[in-house]
Design goal:
Shape: globular
CATH class of the largest domain: Alpha Beta
Order of helices and strands: HHHHHEHEHHEHEHEHHHHHH
Number of strands: 5
CATH topology of the largest domain: Rossmann fold
CATH superfamily of the largest domain: P-loop containing nucleotide triphosphate hydrolases
Radius of gyration: 22 Å
Strand content: 5-15%
Strand order of the largest sheet: 2-3-4-1-5
Helix content: 40-55%
CATH architecture of the largest domain: 3-Layer(aba) Sandwich
């Protein structure tokens, strides 16, 4: 049975990973890959069943396929090791920073780490439904200390009134985290912290204070964190001294890239798509996407959905030529030229 997408009556905010309900849904879901019917059965489906079958396949192709890339494995392995090391630490806990260009799988990597920690915790404490082992937040643009604290509170479901000062919010967050046994905190879009400004520096201090008060492993992720200035100056030196780093980047055009393309092709559910067609286009795909896994997934997922909608049931170079990719990949494609 295929996991359905949320209906129109479901509040999208409740599905967001930055809400407790959305995170729990993400951490617990195991979406099934729909069965590909044999040609005769498929062609004999009546219009209603055919539409239902196609909807299931479109939903499958629209979901972000998690590929166990070296970066994902490295982040999950390193993060779990740090979590074990920090379990008995009373101070000086170590954290992890995931840094790299856009669309290189940073968010996928840290959310998979969080999901892994959540699943392990649930298995270890099956009767503790009130536990919140993992928190996931994103840093708002031009973040201030109060905005950072409010993101924690929003995830935990702590009401934040206009009258509440930042100390009240911090104390409430730290108290709840202790009660619900939070062990990992994932902070995405960390590049939005501009420590060159006073509000940004104070927001960075607030995040550091949370890391000292909450006995959890902090995992930060952002675009080219080293260049964003987060590791510069006295504050940056403190962060650099407590965090290790995993860097993500574009894939080179090599055997690993071809293997990645083949793995994605293996998840397709299209009736006329010949096996090996996408690996044969590995060079073209690298040129179109600049080796960025996020751009690759976007292109193939879009082409697969279009193939179901228009009835061609296969992905070709011609069909992918009609699908625009992100601006960064287009610029890379122009620099590389045709394969």
């Amino acid at each position: 049975m295929v996991t359905r997408q949320p209906g129109p009556d479901v509040d999208p905010q409740l599905q967001a990973l930055t809400s407790l309900s959305g995170w729990r849904q993400f951490a617990s879901e195991l979406p099934a890959i729909p069965e590909l019917l044999d040609t005769v059965t498929w062609q004999d489906l009546d219009p209603g069943k055919r539409a239902h079958y196609d909807d299931d396949r479109i939903a499958h192709h629209s979901r972000l396929l998690v590929v166990q890339t070296p970066a994902v494995r490295d982040v999950v392995t390193t993060g779990r090791r740090l979590a074990h090391m920090n379990r008995a630490a009373r101070f000086g806990r170590s954290g992890l920073i995931v840094s790299g260009p856009a669309r290189t799988g940073k968010t996928t990597a840290i959310t998979q780490l969080g999901k892994t920690i959540e699943v392990i915790h649930r298995r270890r404490y099956p009767g503790c439904a009130d536990h919140i082992p993992v928190i996931y937040i994103t840093v708002p643009p031009a973040a201030t200390p109060r905005m950072i604290a409010a993101e924690f509170a929003r995830f935990l479901g702590i009401p934040v009134t206009r009258q509440a000062n930042i100390t009240d919010i911090i104390e409430a967050v730290c108290g709840v985290c202790a009660d619900v046994r939070t062990t990992a905190i994932c902070v995405d879009e960390i590049h939005n912290l501009n420590i060159a400004t006073r509000p940004g520096a104070e927001a960075s201090d607030t995040l550091k204070y949370f890391s000292e008060r909450i006995p959890a492993t902090f995992v930060l992720s952002g675009i080219n964190v080293e260049r964003a200035g987060l590791l510069s100056g006295p504050r940056g030196e403190q962060i650099a001294g407590r965090y290790s780093m995993v860097r993500t980047g574009p894939f080179p055009r090599d055997a690993q890239w071809a293997t990645l393309v083949a793995a994605i092709e293996g998840s397709l559910r299209l009736h006329r798509h010949p096996a090996g067609a996408l690996p044969d286009l590995a060079g073209y795909l690298h040129q179109r996407t600049g080796g960025m896994i996020g751009s690759l997934l976007w292109l193939i997922r879009s082409a697969a959905i279009q193939a179901v909608i228009d009835g061609t049931e296969k992905i070709t170079r011609t069909s992918m030529d009609a699908i625009p990719v992100d601006i960064a990949s287009q610029a890379s494609s122009t620099r590389q030229g045709k394969p």
